[in-house]
Structures are given as structure tokens and as C-alpha cells.
């Protein structure tokens, strides 16, 4: 697996909470890539996932480069669990400078086909989780007078991307608008809030979960269909999401808030 590369210390002295820092398999999922890249840039990482085992590779990679990392199991759809997670990070490191929300997943189905319980679960996983982490992190950042929040949405939240997944699309659109509203509300308090909008990346989740949902387990067929939508002619992975997030977390983006960086190889710029 190709390594991430950064020789800078753009996040030196910063503490970053990264939710969804685990991964369903080997490779560069968004959360793993963000956690490792931020550690390489000098941040102390508070790595969060519902499943601690899913973070084993993430933690190992950070420790291998001499990074400072603490892992924490948290259900980010549960307010009490999120409150405990944020409090533990504050107790451990004394501050929270960066919050990166990477938890998410999709369920197939339009408004008629999708079951109501799956709708509720999607809204909780993709949107409520962002609301809850922001709710508990923002008071800490406000007291500090600074902070950067980076939320992960999806191109499904801004256009049709090839399949009906109405709850996923609606929740990811909600993440974008939640970020914009929060950015304006907290701008004068020194807190920036932005969104990374990944397109159809080749991450471990694609092979482990999406192929079964959409192409009967035929991974090559799924990858070919996704690749055909991308003008650049190749699929990115979690490292591309992480590079955008690193810019938004760093002081280089000091004049950037309430906006989105689309990381999709040009897919959403197409008219067809």
C-alpha cells in the first residue's frame, strides 16, 4: 500500500479528533488517511471509531512514524457516547483544535423502495453524528477562541451519482448545509467550518460493501461503472480526501469557511 507523503509540520501542536478513523479492510479509507496524514503533519490524534479493531492498522501506521495517538470507541449517533468521547479527548490533551467527521455509509433505495427504519438509520449515521460531535466540540473551541471543523459529505449530496440512495443523498446534503450555517454562526469566535465532498473514490468500503449492494459482488463491474463517470480517467482514494482536509485544518486556509472542496476528478462538472 502506497504511503502518504508530507514533510511539513502544518499541524504541529494541534489536537485532532478524527471520527471513523478505522476501516473495513486494508487500504486508504477516508478516516484512516486523514488520521495518518494529520499525524505526519504534527497533530496529536484522538482516533475514534465504533469498532476499535477497525483502527488497528490506523494506530499502527501512526505509531510507526512516531505519532501521538489515542484510540477511543464511540457510537457517534448517541449523544452520551459523543459527550464522553469529547470530554476524554479534552482530559487527555487539554484542547481540541480540529474535528474531522468521517463516519458514514449508504443504503440503496429511493423514497418508495427504502424502508423507514433504514431511512432513520441513515439520517442518524450520516447527519446526526455530525450534529452531535459539533454540539460537544464547539463549546471547547469557543473557549479557546479557535478551531477548525471539517465535515465529510459526498457528491451524492449535490447531484445524482448513478443510483437511488435517497437517505444517503439527503443526509449528505444536510451535512453541507449544517456546515455552512455553523460556519457563519461561529465565524466571529475564531472557528472555521468547511466540508470535503468526495466523489467516487476507490476505498476499501467500495469492495467490501458496495459491490454486494449494487453489482451482486462483481467488484470489477462496479469499479468500471464508477470510473466511467470520472473525466480524469482514474479513481482517487482516501488520501485525496485527506489532502483536502489537511488544507482546511491548517492555517493556510485561515480565510476559508462555510464552503466545500469537491474531490471527484471532475465528475460533478459533467453535464451528462
UniProtKB/TrEMBL annotation:
Signal peptide: none
Gene3D superfamilies registered for this protein in UniProt: NAD(P)-binding Rossmann-like Domain
Regions annotated as coiled coil: none
Protein origin, superkingdom: Bacteria
One annotated GO molecular function: oxidoreductase activity, acting on the CH-OH group of donors, NAD or NADP as acceptor
A Pfam cross-reference name: adh_short_C2
Family indicated by similarity: Belongs to the short-chain dehydrogenases/reductases (SDR) family.
Full protein name: 3-oxoacyl-ACP reductase
Biological source species: Pseudomonas fluorescens HK44
Amino acid at each position: 500500500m502506497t504511503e502518504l507523503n508530507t514533510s511539513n509540520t502544518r499541524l504541529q501542536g494541534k489536537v485532532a479528533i478524527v471520527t471513523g478513523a478505522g476501516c473495513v479492510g486494508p487500504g486508504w479509507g477516508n478516516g484512516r488517511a486523514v488520521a495518518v496524514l494529520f499525524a505526519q503533519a504534527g497533530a496529536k490524534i484522538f482516533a475514534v471509531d465504533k469498532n476499535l479493531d477497525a483502527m488497528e492498522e490506523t494506530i499502527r501506521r501512526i505509531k510507526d512514524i512516531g505519532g501521538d495517538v489515542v484510540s477511543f470507541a464511540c457510537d457517534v449517533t448517541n449523544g452520551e457516547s459523543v459527550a464522553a468521547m469529547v470530554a476524554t479527548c479534552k482530559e487527555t490533551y487539554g484542547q481540541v483544535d480540529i474535528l474531522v467527521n468521517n463516519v458514514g455509509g449508504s443504503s440503496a433505495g429511493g423514497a418508495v423502495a427504502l424502508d423507514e427504519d433504514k431511512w432513520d438509520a441513515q439520517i442518524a449515521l450520516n447527519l446526526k453524528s455530525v450534529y452531535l460531535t459539533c454540539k460537544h466540540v464547539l463549546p471547547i473551541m469557543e473557549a479557546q477562541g479557535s478551531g477548525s471543523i471539517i465535515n465529510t459529505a459526498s457528491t451524492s449530496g449535490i447531484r445524482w451519482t448513478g443510483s437511488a440512495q435517497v437517505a444517503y443523498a439527503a443526509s449528505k446534503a444536510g451535512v453541507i448545509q449544517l456546515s455552512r450555517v455553523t460556519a457563519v454562526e461561529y465565524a466571529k469566535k475564531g472557528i472555521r467550518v468547511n466540508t470535503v465532498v468526495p466523489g467516487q473514490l476507490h476505498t476499501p468500503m467500495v469492495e467490501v460493501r458496495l459491490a454486494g449492494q449494487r453489482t451482486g459482488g462483481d467488484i470489477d463491474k462496479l469499479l468500471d461503472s464508477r470510473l466511467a463517470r470520472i473525466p480524469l480517467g482514474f479513481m482517487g482514494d482516501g488520501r485525496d480526501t485527506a489532502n483536502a482536509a489537511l488544507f482546511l485544518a491548517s492555517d493556510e486556509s485561515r480565510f476559508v469557511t462555510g464552503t466545500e472542496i469537491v474531490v471527484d476528478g471532475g465528475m460533478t462538472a459533467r453535464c451528462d
